[in-house]
Design goal:
CATH topology: Ribosomal Protein S5, domain 2
CATH architecture: 2-Layer Sandwich
Structural class: alpha+beta
Radius of gyration: 13 Å
Oligomer: single chain
Number of domains: 1
Largest sheet: 3 strands, mixed
Number of helices: 2
Distance between the termini: 17 Å
Number of strands: 3
Length: 91
């Protein structure tokens, strides 16, 4: 995950999923999961960032909950989670 400030009041998401991950069906399934996780976790994150997620091979076999847990873990590593919401996250 790469994070950069964008000077706006919203977060934006980019997903990089190479052909090494699998065929287009697998890649789009992962991308859809990540976009949904991003959408549902907006109230937990600080605003004003561009987020680029580079998908690794293991994501093709991961469940939604595993991907969500990893996404929130990476957000916490980048200090993007609001202090008031930290207690609600099980990382």
């Amino acid at each position: 995950m790469y994070v950069n400030g964008n000077g706006r009041t919203i977060n934006r998401l980019g997903v990089s999923c190479s052909r090494k991950i699998g065929n287009s069906v697998v890649r789009h399934k992962i991308t859809r999961k990540l976009r949904e996780i991003f959408r549902l976790s907006q109230n937990l994150l600080k605003q004003g960032y561009d987020i680029v997620i580079v998908v690794r091979k293991d994501a093709a076999f991961a469940t939604y909950r595993e991907i969500e847990k990893d996404y929130l873990y990476l957000c916490s590593r980048h200090h993007m989670i609001l202090e008031s919401k930290r207690e609600f996250i099980d990382i």
